[in-house]
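Running this now, will post back.
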Amino acid sequence: MFDATATTSSALTVRVPAAATRPVQDLLSCWLLHDAELGGLESPDPGHRCLTLHPRVASIELLPADRRAAVDERGGVWDRRELGVLSPAQRARLYTVLFYSGSRPEPALLPDLPATWRRVLSNFHREDLVVDGHRYASVEHYFQGQKALCSTRPAMASRFRADDDDSVGPDPAAAKSAGSRKAYTRAGASLDGAAWERRRLQVMRTALAARWAQQPLFRAVLSSTAGLELLHFERSGARSYWGGNLGREDGLPRGQNHLGLLLMALRDEPPC
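Update: finished.
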């Protein structure tokens, strides 16, 4: 999504009277550059502040007309600035969205989305989805249920459905625990690991397609990330299959990040 070899980037700015700083920040919070290292800019005019927008906003025409008008009414003056020479790590930080079930709240990328928007991208987000006529409390429930079908006790799959009398319950963490190796051992079952490895990507595609079709909030959040890299945060980093993180030394994405890749594919080429 981003070019780690590029060295420079520019961004829109808006100069506002100091007294209007907070109202304008509130109006533009979805689009501002929330990066202490790159976002700060002193205004040459006494009594004014200069705010920097994220470089993904290529022109002011991409901002809602009512927001632009409100900024103009408060004395805002639009301009553009060079961010200077950017390292690959800085570009990665600018254009990568790290997400997981515990992502801290932060301004969303579009108005009317919750501050917890990054958690919505996680498989642990609790919102019902229906696949093949069965209801599941989260993607994690569906995923673990499908994994059970590759075990010596495929009947265990029903426990991950929301409408089963012996359901594991609505908590995604409980579903993950019920699908763990220890849980299989306690149940006297074993998993055909090779068979599951062949199926797991398609299972995840199916779950995400169901979310796209059935969950408006998920669809809105995912669409809002257009042009950005999605990285499912996992501490295992380079060893992670479903996610990864930004390297501590070079600041670049690492890990196979299959969940992020599937989400970006769904976002960029959604089903009709």
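The radius of gyration is 22 Å. More later if anyone needs it.
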